[in-house]
Structure formats: C-alpha cells, structure tokens
Specification:
Layout lengths: L1 H33 L4 H31 L3 H7 L2 H6 L2 H17 L2 H9 L4 H8 L8 H6 L7 H31 L5 H21 L1 H4 L2 H7 L4 E6 L4 E4 L3 H7 L5 E5 L5 E6 L1 H49 L17 H29 L9
Antiparallel strand pairs: 1-2, 1-4, 3-4
C-alpha cells in the first residue's frame, strides 16, 4: 500500500513537471514565431510539442480507463476536471501538434493536398486555434497550489478560477473557430486579397511571352510576401530568396500555398505576419490568465477568508471546544452580510450562554461543605 502511494505521488509529480514544461514550451514556440527564430530551432519545438500532447493524451486515456473501471466517470469528468485533461490533450494532438509534425515530415505535401480539395487554410487555421486550449493546463497547476488551509476556500477559489479562465479560453476558441469558417475582415483577409491579385498578375505575365522576361523584376517589386512560384513539374519559376535561405528560415506553416485557375502554378506566400499576430494573441491570453489567477490568489482569496472561512472557523472552534471563547471579529463594512449576522448572534448569545454554563459547572466542583473543613 505504501509503495502504491509512493508510485502515485511520483506519477503526479511527473505530470506536474510536464505541465510546467509544456507551458514553457508553448511560450517558447510563440516567441520563436515573434522573434523569427531559425527553422531548425522551431522544428525542435514542434517535435517536443507533439511529445507533450501525446503524453497528456495517454495520461487522459489512462485516467479515463481507471475511472470507467472504478465506475466514477462522472466524478472524474466534472469534479476532478477530466474535461480539462481532454480539451488540453486530444484536440491538440489531432488538430495541432499531430498535423504540424506530419507536415514537417511530408514536406508540406499534406498542405497542398488540402489546398486542392478545400479553401487553403480555413481548415489549417484550426491547427493554430487549437493551441489556445493548451492554456487550460494552467488550471492543473492552480490545483496544486496550497494557498489556504481551508478545504472550502480551496474548492471555492479553484472552482471560480476554473470557471473564469475556462469561459475566456473557450469563448476565444469558439470565436476564432467561427472566424475561420465565416470570413471576417482583418489581417488575413487583407493578405488574402493581395495574394489573389498577385496570383492573377503572375499568371498573366507568365502566360505572355513578351512579359515573361520581366516577371522576376516585376514580382520582386511587389510587397505581397510572395516567396516562390513552382510549376506543376516542380520547376522553380520565381524565388524571392535563395533556396538555402528559404530552407533555414521558413517552415511549412510559414507558407500559404495558392494555385492559378489552371492548377499549373503553385504560389507560396509568406504567412509569418499572420502567425506572429496569432502568437501575440496567445501570449496575451497567457498573461491574462496568469493575472486572473494572481488576482484570485492574492486579492480574492484573502477576502474570501476574511468574510467566510475565518468567521466559520472561529465559530466552529467555539462550538467544539469548551475553553475556546474568542469572539468573531465583525468588520463594519461587512456587518450586514449573512455570515456576520450569524456571527453577531454567536458573539451576543452563544458565547455568554457558554460562559454561564461553564461557570456553573466550575461552581459545582468548587462548592465546599463545613463537613469538608477540619477544625
């Protein structure tokens, strides 16, 4: 039994360590986009992200298996926050790190395949959006923070924090998903229009023998983010940068691939500005969550203790122990609260009654008879 307890503690410590590491990895992944790190370093982050998501998916499946075996699925999903384990693992593996790793090893063939069937990156946008769900892992850290001795306070603060952060994350996730299905004017829309115009221009110039010689110079002068044009036979028609620079600085998710109407030309556009915008949103979201947790821990938690748990603790001790006769301190500004109305009755009625009863019991033991006195 003791060995089992040690094993459970070791596993919980491992999970806790992985939560810390995955948050660090998420921050580094966003920073790598904002600071335009080399592709080699970012590929390592993609691989580690996949490993973390795979680990947490296995953790969720193991916990779910034991919950089913012990017939406590409802308790695990809701009371033990198994829904966080699910949202912060399975969707990420399926829609974020899994496709990212697959595209890393297929050299972008998966992206081109999708672009032939569906609108280029409305499907792939979900890959990036799903990373928002990883921020829910912060709540698992919050659960391990022992910020008060009161079980009620811990449960209450943990629940309200989970609710606040979950609502923010899920609303943002829902809005981002909806904007991926419905065209919303913004940075991506503006870039998409510019890219479509460049595709039409390049297609026209390439199709004209008279203008073909000036294609390279014309496209170099455009500020569209066009990086490369490839023919259907993989012949490179245009490249803004040398191939070595493209290979060292760009990953597959840094490109948006479009084709002309005849499907004879493939256009690769720089998608880094959009990726940087999303990375900034992710970091802002993480900062908001950390600030919310800090407010609940260091501002609301002491307030809850002052107005709920401390009065209850004093009254509970007074009812449990005969010698405990401290009064509940009632702040003037909260005197109308229900808990302090009860505390007022406790101070004014219960404690005097308790003192009187204790005095009577003491008096009975201290009474002396003349027969007890030796002359």
């Amino acid at each position: 039994m003791q060995n089992k307890s040690r094993l459970v503690k070791a596993l919980e410590l491992t999970v806790f360590s992985f939560i810390i590491l995955v948050i660090v990895q998420t921050v580094l992944e966003d920073l790598s986009v904002l600071l335009t790190w080399e592709a080699a370093a970012r590929k390592i982050l993609v691989i580690t992200g996949f490993i973390f998501d795979l680990f947490f998916t296995i953790e969720f499946l193991v916990r779910l298996y034991y919950a089913i075996a012990e017939r406590r699925v409802r308790r695990y999903i809701f009371r033990e926050r198994g829904w966080i384990d699910f949202l912060a693992s399975v969707p990420l593996l399926m829609f974020n790190s899994g496709p990212a790793l697959l595209s890393l090893f297929t050299g972008g063939a998966l992206f081109i395949l999708f672009s032939d069937v569906l609108n280029v990156l409305k499907v792939l946008k979900a890959v990036r959006i799903a990373r928002i769900l990883r921020l829910l892992r912060v709540l698992k850290i919050f659960k391990n923070i022992k910020y008060t001795e009161s079980t009620m306070a811990q449960r209450h603060i943990a629940r309200i924090t989970s609710l606040a952060i979950s609502v923010i994350v899920l609303v943002l996730f829902g809005f981002s998903t909806l904007s991926g299905v419905i065209t919303v004017p913004g940075l991506e829309t503006r870039y998409a229009r510019e890219q479509d115009s460049v595709v039409r221009l390049a297609d026209m110039l390439y199709g004209s023998a008279a203008e073909r010689d000036s294609l390279q110079e014309t496209l170099n002068q455009t500020d569209s983010g066009l990086l490369k044009i490839t023919a259907a036979d993989n012949a490179v028609i245009y490249s803004r940068y040398p191939e070595s620079r493209l290979a060292s600085s760009y990953m597959q998710q840094d490109f948006i691939v479009k084709t002309n109407a005849q499907k004879t030309l493939y256009f690769e556009f720089d998608n880094k500005p959009v990726q940087q915008d999303l990375a900034m949103q992710d970091l802002l979201m993480l900062c908001i969550i950390i600030v919310i947790m800090g407010c609940f821990l260091f501002i609301y938690s002491p307030h809850f203790a002052l107005t709920v748990t401390d009065p209850v603790h004093v009254m509970e001790q007074g009812m449990r122990h005969k010698e405990y006769n401290l009064e509940v301190r009632i702040p003037q500004r909260y005197a109308d609260d229900d808990i302090f109305q009860l505390a007022e009755s406790y101070n004014a009625r219960y404690l005097p009654l308790k003192d009187r009863e204790l005095f009577q019991q003491t008096a009975e033991f201290s009474e002396l008879n003349l027969d007890d006195v030796e002359l």
